[in-house]
Design a protein that fits this description.
CATH superfamily of the largest domain: P-loop containing nucleotide triphosphate hydrolases
CATH topology of the largest domain: Rossmann fold
Organism: Skeletonema marinoi
Radius of gyration: 23 Å
Shape: globular
Protein name: ATP-dependent RNA helicase
Helix content: 25-40%
Distance between the termini: 21 Å
GO molecular function: ATP binding; hydrolase activity; RNA binding; RNA helicase activity
Bound molecules: adenosine-5'-triphosphate
Number of domains: 2
Mean pLDDT: 61
Largest sheet: 8 strands, mixed
Strand content: 5-15%
Keywords: ATP-binding, Helicase, Hydrolase, Nucleotide-binding, RNA-binding
Number of strands: 14
Number of helices: 17
Function: RNA helicase.
Amino acid sequence: MFHVGRFDPTAKPKAAPASASSAGGAKKRRTGDGSKGKSKKSKKDDDVIADAGAREAVVIDDAPTQLKNDDDKGNHSDSSSSVPSSSESDDSSVESAQDNVHKSTLKVIAPSQPISGDSRKANRKRREQDDEAIDDFDADFDIVENSAAKDDTIITAATLRQNEHTPFTATIEEAAKTWNLPQFLVNNLKADSYENFFPIQCMVIPDVIESERNAHLRGARDVCVHAPTGSGKTLAFVLPLLTALHNQSPTSTGGARGLRRLRALVVLPGRDLAKQVYDVFVRYAKGSDIKIGLAVGGGNKKGDLANERRSLVVETYNDTIREIRTDDGALLRRKVGGLYESASARLRHSFEPTSLGKALDAYDGTLKSDSGPQVFPKVGGRSAVDILVCTPGRLMDHLETPGFTLQHLKYLVVDEADRLVNQPYQNWVGRY
Ligand SMILES: Nc1ncnc2c1ncn2[C@@H]1O[C@H](COP(=O)(O)OP(=O)(O)OP(=O)(O)O)[C@@H](O)[C@H]1O
């Protein structure tokens, strides 16, 4: 299942969609993850959330591997409900997904769900036309049709096909042109010899891109995608994210500041999974200036975390220099090794650039007041990456990394959400 949308930062973050694994869908590339999550929840992180403003989220999960077209069984969703109703266990995972995210902004793209009402006939005809292209998937891509589509909370396959005019048989180039994919992505897809987008990609990619384009008008929304293992969900989120970040990058928009910010976070339940998704991002980001980071932990070497920190945050790392000085040489602070930016960089990225002392305190995460030391959100953060692919445990480690901030995060992707919420790390959602 795959979910995209905008977080309400004032809402209490909830766990990702309930388990779909019980309905099947064991991911063939699943592996264990040895990284350990931390359980403590700090006000600091809450503050970061509160300061962050609206963000978008993507939750991705597997659909059952044995999807079945329910049309002929007479299973219809209730057209008066915003949630597809069915006795199928798959449906309950979708319902749970919707319960666990903001209903008002949620779109569900969930192949295998029954199609309701009068549109069944028309949809069946459309599916027949598409059958040739989706043989590999046993024509399992049926989408929920629901009256909630009227208020755009649920997008159906029929809606998408009508709106986007991108049949599954369109070539990569035709579809890319229709969706305005940047040329570097087209080149990379061609390099992989892909000829057509998979059905789930035809449904999701234009939808997310379109949603992003119109976010200023009607707000971005969450999207849940529920599709079988091997159906191409990875590219279904990789391509729209790269498109959006490329369009917003300082070089493509002609921006002068050139500041790189961590704008997209992709969380997976295991190191191997994260590495695979990271590789896909790196391969498809080729030709753009988008930088991808990987934070998975699990290395045995002592300096692994420090190395990872160096790769994620632009900073000065020095074990021997233990003094922070102003540009004119005045001693500001002594540190026992570790990570820090130059004083001028800290100043530049603090909320209060007129107060160097306060800026340094803010950057360190503490601000002294009459009532004693207070937790203060890390601010600014000169990220070395635009997208971070990580495991939850390592993400929590990096919440302590100086200069690392989720303040500028715009997109959140949660892959295999069922596994993530079933693991002990699930409190990472709250910490985020
Ligand atoms: N449009 C396409 N044309 C041809 N091959 C594709 C296309 N999109 C993805 N693939 C390939 O299909 C395979 C499965 O894709 P992917 O891993 O994204 O599926 P998935 O739905 O994420 O599966 P899983 O649930 O195992 O993660 C990959 O080898 C990928 O390279």
